[in-house]
């Protein structure tokens, strides 16, 4: 084999080697492209999965936030209702205290009225006793006036008898006749005064009887009013005790 053949062989080997290297390089490039595509696909799959998980986590968080917001809204509503109930309770308590204070004032006024009525009842009882004593005195004065009238009538009879006897005595009985006439005049005046006194006693009896009846009626009215006041005081006391409990 000569040099030309060797050179041609070498050149063919080199060309074949270059061709083999080119093919091998293209194979390597294709493998690298496939590997790059697979890596990109895996990366995109991983990114998609990560995005899906993150989106799910975000949606979960958003759901929890919505639930928390709803719960907060419910709690705010319950708090508002509790505040409203507390306000209503405070108003009711204030009204109850005001009502209790009013009842206490009424109870004190009733107690004062009851004390005043008891005082008036005692006064009426005293007047009742005084009127009974006055009526007894009037009765005694009637009896004494009747006795006085009887005495005056007897004096008139005596003076008439004296005048008759003086007339029989004539001149000697003239002085006695004058005395008898004066006695008869005094007896007549006494009789008139006794009748006037009797009329005054009768009018006094009417006034005393009417006053006595008015006092009795007033005493009964006061007793009835005192019973009503005591009943009202008991009712108020019961209401105050119920309000306190």
Automatic annotation (TrEMBL):
<feature type="transmembrane region" description="Helical">
    <location>
        <begin position="6"/>
        <end position="25"/>
    </location>
</feature>
<dbReference type="Pfam" id="PF00015">
    <property type="entry name" value="MCPsignal"/>
</dbReference>
<dbReference type="GO" id="GO:0016020">
    <property type="term" value="C:membrane"/>
</dbReference>
<keyword id="KW-1133">Transmembrane helix</keyword>
<keyword id="KW-0472">Membrane</keyword>
<feature type="domain" description="Methyl-accepting transducer">
    <location>
        <begin position="36"/>
        <end position="245"/>
    </location>
</feature>
<feature type="coiled-coil region">
    <location>
        <begin position="58"/>
        <end position="113"/>
    </location>
</feature>
<dbReference type="InterPro" id="IPR004089">
    <property type="entry name" value="MCPsignal_dom"/>
</dbReference>
<keyword id="KW-0175">Coiled coil</keyword>
<dbReference type="GO" id="GO:0007165">
    <property type="term" value="P:signal transduction"/>
</dbReference>
<keyword id="KW-0812">Transmembrane</keyword>
<keyword id="KW-0807">Transducer</keyword>
<protein>
    <submittedName>
        <fullName>Chemotaxis protein</fullName>
    </submittedName>
</protein>
């Amino acid at each position: 084999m000569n040099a030309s053949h060797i050179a041609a062989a070498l050149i063919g080997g080199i060309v074949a080697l270059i061709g083999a290297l080119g093919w091998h390089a293209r194979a390597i490039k294709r493998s690298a492209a496939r590997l790059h595509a697979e890596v990109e696909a895996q990366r995109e799959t991983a990114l998609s999965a990560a995005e899906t998980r993150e989106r799910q986590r975000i949606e979960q968080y958003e759901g929890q936030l919505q639930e928390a917001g709803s719960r907060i809204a419910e709690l705010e509503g319950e708090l508002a209702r509790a505040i409203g109930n507390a306000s209503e309770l405070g108003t009711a308590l204030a009204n109850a205290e005001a009502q209790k204070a009013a009842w206490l004032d009424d109870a004190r006024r009733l107690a004062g009225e009851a004390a005043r009525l008891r005082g008036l009842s005692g006064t009426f009882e005293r007047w009742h006793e005084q009127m009974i004593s006055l009526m007894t005195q009037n009765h005694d004065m009637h009896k004494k006036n009747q006795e006085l009238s009887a005495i005056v009538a007897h004096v008139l009879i005596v003076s008439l008898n004296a005048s008759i006897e003086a007339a029989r005595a004539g001149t000697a009985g003239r002085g006695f006749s004058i005395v008898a006439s004066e006695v008869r005049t005094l007896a007549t005046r006494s009789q008139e005064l006794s009748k006037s006194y009797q009329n005054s006693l009768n009018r006094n009896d009417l006034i005393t009887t009417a006053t006595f009846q008015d006092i009795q009626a007033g005493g009964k009215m006061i007793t009835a009013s005192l019973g009503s006041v005591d009943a009202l005081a008991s009712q108020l006391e019961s209401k105050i005790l119920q309000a306190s409990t």
